[in-house]
Design a protein that fits this description.
binds flavin mononucleotide, NADH Oxidase, 2 domains, alpha+beta, two-stranded antiparallel ribbon, four-stranded antiparallel β-sheet
Length: about 240
């Protein structure tokens, strides 16, 4: 049961606005809570609710360079994308577009990213380790799913809602991958939103790339994570 909270509120243009910054800085340091609950913490660990909650809380981002290079079957990746497509979408526009890179296409993506980094980095800022990592990440990746959005400029749905729908789709994909023991990492490198990347992907004028979902397997233990107590992110109006 979530408790009511007493946020610090202020008036902005006559509307209550929460001062999250003060709330956070006042509490920072001591209020981070432990990571995900595990199934064993719950009353009935076999219930659908417990399993879903465990999946949501135990999903973690592992850097793709820590993947083990094992390949996922193409059909499994297709299934993940089908799960993604069951996300909510205002007006059923289904604005998500997925560009999947596997095998030799991953090499081409690595070539593009390294070239882009070299061309857009002043010599004094050039980091050879970063340059190498751009390829390393993709070599260890089984499939890279480039997450894109289509926004109809004449359509009734605002761009922000189409982007939100794609983020929901991404979460579906990540959770479904996690349920199958597949790692998924959302990366948004500096090239992501550029005209060069847009052209590399062959996107149309109404499309944008939102990031890369790196898929693969890893032998590493998932890193621990933490979230702020929900009270610091919750205003309950009743
Ligand atoms: C839209 C979006 C973009 C992200 N881009 C990056 C990125 O460029 N580099 C990175 O290290 N992590 C990126 N992440 C992943 C976050 O770092 C990660 O989700 C966060 O550290 C929380 O860890 P967790 O996913 O294990 O809970 C991104 C996540 C989102 C949602």
């Amino acid at each position: 049961m979530i408790k009511k909270t007493q946020p610090i509120v202020d008036k902005v243009d006559g509307v209550d606005a929460v001062d999250w910054g003060s709330r956070l800085s006042a509490n920072q340091g001591s209020t981070f809570v432990a990571g995900p609950q595990t199934l064993s913490d719950m009353d009935d660990p076999s219930s659908t609710e417990a399993i879903l909650r465990d999946l949501i809380r135990s999903r973690r981002s592992i850097k793709p360079r820590l993947f083990n290079g094992r390949r996922i079957e193409d059909g499994v990746v297709r299934g993940l994308i089908e799960d993604a497509c069951w996300a909510p979408t205002h007006g059923l526009t289904q604005p998500w577009r997925f560009h999947v890179f596997s095998d030799a296409a991953l090499e081409r993506l690595a070539d593009f990213r390294q070239e882009w980094y070299r061309d857009h980095t002043p010599p004094e800022a050039f980091d050879p380790n970063k340059f190498d990592r751009l390829r390393e990440n993709l070599i260890q990746t089984s499939h890279a799913v480039l997450l894109c959005v289509h926004v109809d400029p004449e359509g009734p749905i605002p761009e922000i809602e189409e982007i939100e729908a794609v983020a929901c789709a991404a979460q579906n994909l990540m959770l479904s991958a996690h349920a199958q023991g597949i790692q998924c990492f959302w990366g948004s490198g500096a090239e992501t939103y550029t005209a060069e990347h847009h052209a590399f992907l062959g996107l149309g004028p109404s499309e944008r790339c939102l990031g890369t979902l790196y898929l693969g397997y890893s032998d590493r233990r998932a890193p621990k994570s933490k979230r702020l107590p929900v009270e610091q992110r919750l205003v309950w109006h009743s």
